[in-house]
Amino acid sequence: MTPPFQSLPQRITTTRLILERFKRSDALDLFDAAFASTDEMYPFMPWCHPEYSLEDAHEAIQTALSNWALEDAWAFTIRVKTTGEFIGGCGLNTIDEHRNANLGYWIKSTEVGRGYASEATRALVAYGLHHLQLVRIEIMISTLNSASMKVAEKSGATYEGIARNRLFLHETAYDAHLFSFIPADFPDG
């Protein structure tokens, strides 16, 4: 049975966060957060490059909206519930015929270390498993990215090992740690 994607919730609320489908009006917030985080993110997320511009943010949001409409990927902003501050993004993409998906996340550098990424990850996994009816969600992390490894571990993902030459970043292949979630990890929704 195919999930009714048109009626999917566009907002996920956690204890401290609101994850919400990107809107065009998020462009300046996305630009500000990404630009402030370039030094930390660029080695692992080439889209967040030193020349990142407001136009790049507009294009990223248009892609996110198009992917949502095509039912190819689901991208969300991450905002602090009490203040509404934009602190990052997360999403599910690379969904295949086996109902597997990739999960990605990033948090603005000034907000790292507060548990926001793991909280958003758990909420997004539950969303993917229950609303998108995925059977497996993977997190692929460069073996050089220790901060992201901590997020995967803290979120409760199962470590499966190292995938050799799994990520291609800055014209170089890197090994990646592979973590996963399956429905049995979230039996109560």
Task: Offer a quick outline of the entry.
The protein has 189 residues and is α+β, with helices and mostly antiparallel strands.
Describe this entry's structure for a reader.
The mean pLDDT is 93. Strand 1 and strand 2 form a beta hairpin. This protein has 189 residues and is of the alpha+beta class. The protein is built from 5 helices and 8 strands. The protein has one domain: 3-Layer(aba) Sandwich (Aminopeptidase), CATH 3.40.630.30. Helix 4 crosses helix 5. It has an 8-stranded mixed beta sheet with strand order 1-2-3-4-5-6-8-7, with helices on both faces. The chain starts with 10 loop residues before the first strand and ends in an 8-residue tail after the last strand.
Q: End-to-end span in angstroms?
A: 19 Å
In terms of DSSP E residues, the strand content is 25-35%
Helix and strand succession? Answer: EEHHHEEEHEHEE
Main β-sheet description: 8 strands, mixed
**Total domains:** 1
* CATH homologous superfamily (4th level) name: Gcn5-related N-acetyltransferase (GNAT)
What fraction, in percent, of the residue positions are helical? 25-40%
The shape, in one word, is: globular
Mean pLDDT: 93
Look at the structure and give the CATH class.
Answer: Alpha Beta
How much is the radius of gyration in Å? Answer: 16 Å
Determine the structural class based on helices, strands and strand pairing.
alpha+beta
Q: Residue ranges: pLDDT <50 for 5 or more in a row?
A: none
Strand order across the largest sheet: 1-2-3-4-5-6-8-7
Give the total of beta strands: 8
- Indicate the CATH architecture: 3-Layer(aba) Sandwich
Output the CATH topology.
Aminopeptidase
Number of helices: 5
InterPro entries: Acyl_CoA_acyltransferase, GNAT_dom, Ribosomal_N-acetyltransferase
GO molecular function: protein N-terminal-serine acetyltransferase activity; protein-N-terminal-alanine acetyltransferase activity
Protein name: GNAT family N-acetyltransferase
